[in-house]
Write a structure and sequence with these properties.
118 residues, mainly alpha, 5 helices, 0% strand
């Protein structure tokens, strides 16, 4: 693996671990982002946070890297409805609307980034 690829890997792992921790330190924000049709908001936020931490850490281990990358791809697809809800619900006035909408195509870039490690 090249130096650039290694930096990308460690950066991706750090991003997912940090994002997972944020599910617990800023839980109310993530609960607010849950679409109403998804049940058990708190449990889902905690589960997705744990998944991000575990999958981010899994990227760091060669034995689990491929599984973690596929898990991240599945997770990004699973949380996409929450990102759509954030952009369309009108509940996130403190965030610029443009940023909320730019998060949607960003998900596809993140999926591509994770795919590099499959």
């Amino acid at each position: 693996m090249s130096t650039v690829e290694s930096i990308g890997l460690y950066l991706a792992a750090a991003i997912y671990i940090f994002a997972g921790i944020m599910h617990f330190t800023n839980e109310r924000f993530y609960i607010k982002a849950m679409p109403p049709y998804i049940p058990y908001h708190k449990a889902m936020v905690q589960l997705s946070g744990m998944a991000e931490i575990v999958l981010g850490a899994g990227l760091l281990l060669p034995a689990t890297r491929t599984y973690a990358a596929w898990g991240i791809i599945v997770l990004l697809i699973a949380v996409f409805p929450a990102n759509v809800y954030m952009a369309t619900s009108g509940k996130f006035h403190r965030m610029p609307q443009l940023l909320l909408w730019l998060r949607l195509p960003l998900q596809f870039l993140l999926i591509g980034w994770a795919y590099l490690y499959t």
